[in-house]
Amino acid sequence: MDVAEIYPADRVTVREVGLRDGLQLVKAFPSTRGKQRWIAEEHAAGVRHFEVGSFLPAARFPQFADVRDIVATVAALPDAHGIALAMNERGQDEALASGVPEIACVVSATEEHSLANARRPRQKAIEDIARLCALRDASAHRPIVHPAISMALGCSISGAVDPNEVLRLVAACFEAGADAVSIADTVGYAGPKQVGELTALAVKLGGGPITVHLHDTRGMGIANAAAALDAGARILDGSLGGLGGCPFAPGATGNVVFEDLVFLCESKGFSTGIDLPKLVSVREVLQSEMPGEPLHGALARAGLPGKAAAA
Amino acid sequence: MDVAEIYPADRVTVREVGLRDGLQLVKAFPSTRGKQRWIAEEHAAGVRHFEVGSFLPAARFPQFADVRDIVATVAALPDAHGIALAMNERGQDEALASGVPEIACVVSATEEHSLANARRPRQKAIEDIARLCALRDASAHRPIVHPAISMALGCSISGAVDPNEVLRLVAACFEAGADAVSIADTVGYAGPKQVGELTALAVKLGGGPITVHLHDTRGMGIANAAAALDAGARILDGSLGGLGGCPFAPGATGNVVFEDLVFLCESKGFSTGIDLPKLVSVREVLQSEMPGEPLHGALARAGLPGKAAAA
Asked: What pTM was computed for the model?
């Protein structure tokens, strides 16, 4: 996989991460058929990049038990690109074997969070990335390796995070062979100034594409996405209806609302190729599959601006 | 009233407009006592600028029948500043007689909207401002005259709005004697690029302070506020819990959420003097006074970031 083909530097790519990050915390999971409808309808609306699930023990994470099926679902759609998360060596091996064209993995921004959440020091996470990159280079399909620095803009354990630590980890990921690196505001602590400043520095490193992964926990999601775009990021994540939540703030909103994010990109002159009314209508799949789950987002309530305004 | 004292150019002022704009569309109105608690508790949290109501016929707009009482409520609080809206000559006369220290009025950005909504050409609205300014100059208390260009970023009737028309109207307001002028995204059509560009041009005119009044109809409210701040605006409006709605989009969100706006300003390094946890707790007044009214906002759900992060 050529990262520049999947994520062209001259346009904005928005990625649907609801099937992974959005399902991390929900109470009811969509069926495999439901996920497939979700993907097919979003694909028909123009979405091309899907995070499909995580390679985790199915007993503890039943929502991702069908991850291989969903990898295959995306692979069967024209120009669609699937991404799967792998949290450890076993997950990486399984992801590699699944043939998914992109493997995401995680490095905590702080040592405290890394030890508490992944039970390993950050250095081990970097070594796992180097290992995965070696396996990638030896593979036939050469998936994109795309680590994320979680808690990069504030940590649920340590609080404020030193941006220089984050930049050091971003550089370490690229040195380990990563094709792209995400900066994640995992718990939605940041405002646009902080997001813009860190993104600009990460882009300036020049190691490769920088993704900005935002949560709308404190209502700053869209403003932070605008700041990330202004700072040069060209890959942004969101989940339809803002599906998901925050393990540290019960009732909080989840990922930045995908359809509102698309509206933002278009309003800033970045064409996403996505048909917004079609995208909004896919919320019906989520509502029927997860009837108890609150969906967020302003565009779905208000509709697009009047026709004359859109002209 | 010296506008530079009420709105110092070297800091950001956030104004609570929920008692006027937020009540324009609600089904149940708060009691006068409820409004007074709302104001007193927000004042205790550090809020100083309150739009208190509109001078309109009480028979048709019962939610503003107590506007004179609320003007007096704000006047009695230390350092608090009250603003009342006047839509026509009669309203202006009444507002002037009430002693309210600031009178807001409206000019539609488009001729079509002006004729349909206010049944007058825009030129008449400008003449009314000149008349109000003459009355102000002859008054003892000399209230601030602060017109808003409604539909300045998109019109519910005409669609797209020519920014040069808006700038012409902003200049005409200042020439008529206005102390400050608001740019209003009345129906929430704009994204941050458009808001930033128009704000920068309006600030550059140099006529006086520029307020940016935003609605969160399509989820862009906070991102648009960030863009307005970046472009040099130093007065922003919001309503607690995003109270209000949009007459052209039933079920849509209303004004930008006041508490999330305060969080944004603080995150960008603009000190507002407002205690956020105290401000969020004032939502209880709205909930008990208007139990059926949906309140929006992410901060109220998620809470502030952890203590260490806030340090």
From this structure: 0.94
Closest CA–CA distance from residue B191 to any residue of chain A (Å): 5
Q: Lowest mean pLDDT of A170-174, B72-76, B241-245, name the range.
A: B241-245
Which one of B197, B214, B222 would you mutate to disrupt binding with A, by most A Cβ within 10 Å of its Cβ? B222
Closest partner CB to A226 (pick from B226, B303, B307): B226
Determine the residue of chain A that is closest to B219 in CA distance.
A298
Q: Collect all residues of chain A within an 8 Å Cβ-Cβ radius of residue B266.
A: 191
Mean pLDDT computed over B51-71: 96
**Ordered DSSP codes for chain A:** --HHHHS-TTS-EEEE-TTTGGGSS-SSPPPHHHHHHHHHHHHHHT--EEEEEEE--TTT-GGGTTHHHHHHHHHTSTT-EEEEEE-SHHHHHHHHHHT-SEEEEEEESSHHHIIIIISS-HHHHHHHHHHHHHHHHHSSS--EEEEEEETBTBBTTTBS--HHHHHHHHHHHHHTT-S-EEEEETT----HHHHHHHHHHHHHH-SS-EEEEEB-TTS-HHHHHHHHHHTT--EEEEBGGG----TTSTT---BPBHHHHHHHHHHTT------HHHHHHTHHHHHHHSTTS----SHHHH-SPPHHHH-
- All structural domains of chain A: 3-310 (3.20.20.70)
In tens, the pLDDT along B2-52 reads 999 999 999 999 999 999 999 988 888 999 999 999 999 999 999 999 999
Taking CA–CA distances from A256, the nearest residue in chain B reads B219
Dump pLDDT digits (tens) for B154-170. 999 999 999 999 999 99
ipTM of this predicted complex?
A: 0.91
Q: Which of A191, A264, A309 sits opposite B154 (nearest CB)?
A: A309
Could B260 and A190 be called an inter-chain contact, meaning their C-beta atoms sit closer than 8 Å? no
Q: Which of B193, B269, B309 sits opposite A189 (nearest CB)?
A: B309
